[in-house]
């Protein structure tokens, strides 16, 4: 097919996204005032707890089977490779243009985590419909597209909240600076004296938590005399360490409602008995599945509205971040797609993946999408780089209608 015809096919889904995002930006204007700060906050909560798990459940339950999971084994690996390559390129970018340390995690997160949770769900099925049997029968193409993109969305969500979250957490920490002056030395001497005083006093119970007033503040130690020898034991609490581990790795976010939607959807998809009960017009509980699917249908347009509303913030301050913005755009829309072509073509050459052109297109698309919206949510969570993230999101998403369309055209030209 001619390159221009492929370009028009690729342009259709991007125009849909642009129109909805523009509407979100209009609704967020001060003169309109519909999508204000509180409104966006409540919409984010609904998307997080209701729409996203419902969408992932309905897509996976409808399209994923045990056989398709085995066939799609390379898809999670491809997403992981995208994260590794993107974060590596971002590390070089941080060193090259000397990005401030507290923004290193933001840059690495934006380059590593592409919006593979939402955009492929719009782009690929729309291309199946608009492409005039470009990838074969429309119904078969749409069904396969939903299987590929729903699994992409599920894996992308897990990777984003387990990898990018820790990037931002590590680089948002402010290192403490210790000055060794005379007052510091005197303070250290006082600390040693207090420890000595405290250690000479046997506590009546090892479980006592309060210290004498002349002992160190905020230092929890337990003193006990056994056979005339003093022993100082540090307080050890297994539950406390477990809580610290979960807080550091954000397991609460990892096991978010969206993940439960993925788990339930995969279980129903791969167990034939459950599919017969829930999926299909003749299924006894098909109304339950249909209701959840209707909730999931509201997820994508709502998320795009929120993205459009948030992009207004990026209009301010973009002039001060030109080198960083240009560098991220080059990584996202030049380096990553070029490397992705080499990876997918190599997998095809060594017969690691099936010969389905639509599957190849989805794998290539992983490398060409703008940053994940979840990165913006994480910056608000840590309170670091919020304004910079808005500028990056604005620049990368404003470039998407042209650059992403061009790459989609190139990808279709390569796989067909």
TrEMBL record:
Pfam (any one): Mem_trans
Q: Does the keyword Transport apply?
A: yes
Q: Where in the cell is it found?
A: Endoplasmic reticulum membrane
The UniProt entry, under InterPro entries, shows: Mem_transp_PIN-like (IPR004776), PILS1/3/4/5/7 (IPR045033)
Task: List all membrane-crossing ranges.
Answer: 6-33, 45-64, 70-93, 105-127, 147-168, 253-272, 292-312, 324-344, 364-384, 391-415
Keyword vocabulary terms for this entry: Auxin signaling pathway, Endoplasmic reticulum, Membrane, Transmembrane, Transmembrane helix, Transport
Q: Name one GO biological process term.
A: endoplasmic reticulum to cytosol auxin transport
| Topology in membrane | Multi-pass membrane protein
Q: Which GO terms describe its cellular component?
A: endoplasmic reticulum membrane
Cited PANTHER family:
AUXIN EFFLUX CARRIER FAMILY PROTEIN, PTHR31651
Tell me, in a sentence or two, what this protein's role is.
Involved in cellular auxin homeostasis by regulating auxin metabolism. Regulates intracellular auxin accumulation at the endoplasmic reticulum and thus auxin availability for nuclear auxin signaling.
* Family indicated by similarity: Belongs to the auxin efflux carrier (TC 2.A.69.2) family.
Know the name of this protein?
Protein PIN-LIKES 3-like
Q: Which organism is it from?
A: Cicer arietinum (Chickpea)
**What gene is this protein a product of?**
LOC101498835
